[in-house]
Design brief:
364 residues, 73% helix, globular
Length: 364
């Protein structure tokens, strides 16, 4: 079967709901293995080491636009007394609608991009319905406008993270959408950080670092179960790496700020930190970890080196900030161009280690 079906046939079967995306990837891997066995092409056995699949076709974009329009209608309805329905009821109805759409678009059609949007919408509206209901007595007497609504969601006395965490867990266990794991990890951090700060007074960067390490370990556990990166386990790990990296880096940034105080040595420490992250990303073969941390690093380095300086009259960006960005950019380009050759040189160092069987194989 894998030798007769084309990739287009498999994609059509996924869209029609005959098989799911994970089964399609397994069939593609089997086809590649069969081809390699007959042609001697070892490279064909290995799938793309870091997939980022979020589109089955342009129809996914079409469906996503429809989902967003429905969400816009519900958002507009919350500011009115449409058909006499209460605000809480509209939020609950929206959550139910997005769940039903998920049953159709995610469970049946296996549409990834609409599923990502639907997961965010369901979690947001479901949690909002519960929070508004719990605090309705104090809210119904208020005069609502855009500013007051924003102030409501920023109010630290209202708990949004816990119901959002529960909703994201329910969504993931029902639809097994890898992206939903990112929501679980994110709202888990919201709940854990708020709870630990209230109980222990531990500063947020340390909480973020510990939680980020935990998420990273879970992501690595998924990766070790799929070193060839051919199943949905790899997709799950991908999203968890994206969440873990900024949390881990947050402590590094805090320590750099505390020890260098924005001096010239800040650039050196930042570059060394990026180098360590790059080597680790090479070993585990995860660009996602490095990309996510670099995005956070860019903003943080600007705060450390550029923000205060640029606030001065007539001052431009400091040369240290410009040079740091240039060197980090050059480092990323080198990694992108020579990723596999660099991995091939680094992996032999770990060939006799306990982690060697769990590392993705080297590629030409």
């Amino acid at each position: 079967m894998p030798g007769t079906l084309t990739p287009e046939d498999l994609n059509s079967a996924v869209e029609a709901g005959v098989i799911d995306a994970a089964q399609a990837e397994k069939l593609k891997a089997m086809r590649a293995a069969n081809n390699a066995a007959t042609t001697g092409d070892a490279e064909g056995v290995l799938a793309d080491e870091e997939r980022f699949r979020f589109l089955n076709g342009f129809n996914d974009v079409f469906l996503t636009i429809g989902v967003l329009l429905v969400a816009g209608a519900f958002l507009a309805a919350t500011s009115t007394s449409l058909f006499g329905i209460s605000w809480v009821s509209i939020l609950a109805l929206a959550a139910a609608t997005f769940w039903i759409l998920s049953e159709i678009l995610v469970a049946r059609l296996r549409a990834v991009l609409p599923g990502m949007v639907l997961s965010i919408l369901f979690v947001t509206f479901a949690a909002a319905a519960l929070v508004v209901q719990l605090h309705w007595d104090s809210l119904k007497a208020s005069t609502w406008d855009a500013d007051s609504e924003l102030a409501f969601w920023r109010n630290p006395t209202l708990t949004f993270g816990a119901p959002a965490l529960v909703a994201s867990l329910v969504y993931y266990f029902r639809f097994r959408l890898p992206f939903a794991l990112a929501l679980v990890a994110f709202f888990g951090y919201v709940v854990v950080s708020k709870g630990l700060v209230a109980l222990t007074g531990v500063t947020t960067p340390f909480i973020g670092f510990a939680y980020g390490i935990l998420v990273l370990l879970v992501a690595l556990a998924y990766d070790t179960r799929d070193p060839q990166r051919t199943t949905r386990l790899s997709d799950c790990a991908f999203w968890l790496h994206l969440v873990a990296a900024p949390l881990i880096v947050s402590l590094a940034i805090s320590l750099i700020d505390a020890t260098t105080h924005g001096s010239e040595s800040t650039s050196t420490v930042v570059l060394l930190t990026v180098l360590v992250l790059g080597i680790f990303a090479l070993v585990i073969d995860r660009r996602a970890l490095l990309v996510s941390s670099l995005l956070y690093f860019t903003l943080a380095v600007y705060d450390l080196l550029g923000a205060n300086h640029s606030a001065l009259p007539g001052a431009g960006m400091p040369s240290s900030f410009v040079l740091t960005l240039a060197l980090v950019g050059a480092f990323v380009l080198v990694l992108g161009i020579f990723w596999h050759p660099l991995r091939n040189r680094i992996l032999p160092i770990f060939k006799n280690s306990a982690i060697a069987p769990y590392l993705p194989p080297a590629r030409p």
